[in-house]
């Protein structure tokens, strides 16, 4: 019996995309004992990747799981059109997964708060210690590259043969590599600028998930 591909997969970034604010950056800034500005500058200049940045920041952070959860849930919200988009995608038979170079702890808390905990996501993980220190782990890293904590490109390609079409949605530096392998890209901010500069043929600018819902209605 021949393997039958599923119709389509939508892979979306989380910080700045599903969640309009960058929760990860807010968390790292709020709970770092001293400034991490130099680490941030190294990352933005691509002198170091996110995995190295996390390793440098971890010893500077002090926060309990309860405190972090309260901070995240008080200050975070998802795109107002995301839940409706997700319900439409399910109705159309289109799978949705989230990939993030952020942390599992706050992604899970935010998604469960919005009754969207069923959506599969891939991310870095955080382990809390008794003295309120923590450590970061990278179960989705790609050892052949070593820059990102979560290799979104590897995750996309791991699903490539399962789907007829893969759509990628993102906004930042860590979304550039996977966007180059997607069949269609919805882009904003840094990712949009990169698509424009590289002359990417298969991208569309977007502001919110209402626009992506309209695409689903018209094409599936």
In short:
The chain has helices at residues 23-30, 37-44, 50-57, 65-75, 82-92, 104-113, 152-158, 176-179, 189-198, 209-219, and strands at 6-12, 94-103, 121-128, 134-137, 163-170, 184-187, 203-205.
CATH class: Alpha Beta
Ranges with pLDDT <50 over ≥5 residues?
none
Largest sheet: 7 strands, mixed
How many individual domains? 1
How does the overall form come out from the CA principal axes? Answer: globular
CATH superfamily, called what?
HAD superfamily/HAD-like
Fold and architecture overview:
The protein is of the alpha/beta class. The protein has one domain (about 5-220): Rossmann fold. About 40% of the residues lie in helices and about 20% in strands. It has a 7-stranded mixed sheet, with helices on both faces.
List keywords for this structure.
seven-stranded mixed sheet, 220 residues, Rossmann fold, alpha/beta
Set out the fold topology.
Blueprint: E1 6-12, H1 23-30, H2 37-44, H3 50-57, H4 65-75, H5 82-92, E2 94-103, H6 104-113, E3 121-128, E4 134-137, H7 152-158, E5 163-170, H8 176-179, E6 184-187, H9 189-198, E7 203-205, H10 209-219
């Amino acid at each position: 019996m021949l393997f039958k591909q599923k119709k389509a997969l939508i892979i979306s970034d989380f910080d700045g995309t599903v969640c309009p604010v960058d929760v990860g950056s807010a968390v790292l800034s709020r709970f770092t004992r001293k400034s991490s500005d130099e680490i941030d500058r190294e990352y933005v200049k691509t002198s170091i990747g996110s995995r190295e940045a996390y390793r440098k920041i971890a010893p500077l952070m002090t926060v309990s799981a309860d405190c972090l959860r309260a901070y995240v849930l008080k200050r975070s919200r998802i795109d107002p059109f995301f839940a409706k988009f997700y319900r439409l995608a399910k109705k159309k038979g289109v799978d949705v997964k989230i990939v993030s170079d952020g942390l599992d702890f706050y992604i899970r808390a935010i998604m469960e708060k919005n009754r969207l905990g069923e959506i599969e996501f891939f991310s870095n993980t955080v382990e809390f210690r008794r003295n309120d220190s923590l450590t970061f782990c990278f179960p989705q890293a790609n050892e052949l590259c070593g820059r990102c904590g979560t290799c979104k490109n590897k995750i996309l390609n791991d699903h490539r043969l399962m789907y007829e079409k893969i759509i990628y949605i993102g906004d930042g530096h860590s979304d550039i590599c996977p966007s180059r392998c997607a069949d269609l890209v919805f882009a904003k901010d840094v990712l949009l600028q990169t698509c424009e500069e590289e002359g990417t043929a298969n991208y569309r600018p977007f502001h919110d998930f209402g626009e992506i819902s309209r695409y689903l209605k018209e094409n599936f």
